[in-house]
Amino acid sequence: MSEKITLTCALTGSIHTPTMSPHLPVTPDEIAEQALAAHQAGATILHLHARDPATGKPSAKTEDFMRFLPRIKQGCDAVLNISTGGSSQMTLDERLAAARAAQPEMCSLNMGSMNFGIFPLARRYETWRHDWEQPFLEATRDVVFKNTFGDIQTILADLGEGCGTRFEFECYDVGHIQTLAWFLRAGHVKPPVFVQFVLGVLGGIDASPESLMAMKGTADRLMGNAYRFSVLAAGRHQMPLGTMGAIIGGNVRVGLEDSLTDGNSRELARSNAAQVGRMRKIVETLGFEIATPDEARAILGLKGGDRVAF
Question: Which InterPro entries does this one have (predicted)?
Fold first, then answer.
């Protein structure tokens, strides 16, 4: 608990759609501007997905990532973390294309296949800005997010061994921690292991204090001192469980990918920076300090921003 807290901001993701919030960044300009503002507000790591700039639909195209990655790198020293999760409706090669090209310091890596149900969100809206939105959400009733042991091995080999990239290992349930611990024991993953406990996605573990403690207890038992963790809680649980994560010795993730609202209210957050600023204030009020990007690089064993391909 003596280490400083790493504050991650997940800017746009592939769950929420443009109808849900006018503040969700979609275009390269919006993503870059909100990324720089989030860093200025205190974000150490910026977790990045891309969108089709015309429609806002989640995109895996390398060119869409490259429209904002260099601009963010030039504008700040934050650690840039590229998603390999994309969406459940993309193939593995599509999901990996941008990361293979960019060779970033860090990527996310979902630690298993799972039902990833975002279809309940469709019930909240009667009209849509774009024709793709409602079918995209409804498709998740029957589409499984696929990351087999073989897929995980491919990602570790291509990006970890091939590019020196390290990972934010996203664990949506206790079984994902078991899988990560196996890769660690087998020598395919080297410490320090950075684990993101993902709480509140339909198909994974629920967002509750009890679930967070179950995840931490399992990780403690299986990985001991070889790992560090962060807490991501969906929707209204974002701030309370993030706060709990900081108190019990972890790091925190916020951002419009995970919640569109401002704290526990029903009001829409006006930006990613607003959420970062709120969480930073909570963390500092509790007596903790936010890590700088270079401090996070040292803690997590990252290769440095000068060794990426963008």
Answer: Aldolase_TIM, BKACE
Alpha helical stretches, state H, 7-142: 28-41, 62-66, 69-75, 92-102, 133-138
The helix or strand, by DSSP H or E, that contains position 273, with its residue range, turns out to be helix 272-285
Q: Domain count for the chain, please give it.
A: 1
Structural domain contains residue 101 = yes
| pLDDT at residue 100, as a whole number | 98
pTM, entire model: 0.97
Reading phi first (left if > 0) and then psi (alpha if -120 to 50, else beta), residue 256 is in alpha
Contact 144, 88 (CB under 8 A): yes
Q: Is 266 exposed, middle or buried (CB count within 10 Å of its CB: 0-12, 13-18, 19+)?
A: exposed
- Look at residues 227, 231, 211 and name the one whose alpha carbon lies nearest to residue 219: 227
Query: How high is the mean pLDDT of the chain?
Result: 97
pLDDT value, residue 263? 79
Task: Establish if 24 belongs to a structural domain.
Answer: yes
Q: What is the mean pLDDT of residues 172-196?
A: 98
How far CA 288 is from CA of 139, 251, 275, 283, 294, in Å, comes to 42, 11, 17, 6, 17
The answer to whether residue 2 is domain-embedded is: no
In this prediction, residue 203 carries a pLDDT of 98
* Amino acid (1-letter code) at residue 122: A
Q: In this model, does residue 264 exceed pLDDT 80? A: no
CA distance 21 to 261: 9
C-alpha to C-alpha distances, 150 to 63, 111, 154, 170, 222, nearest whole angstrom: 27, 11, 6, 17, 22
State both tokens at 9: 């901001």
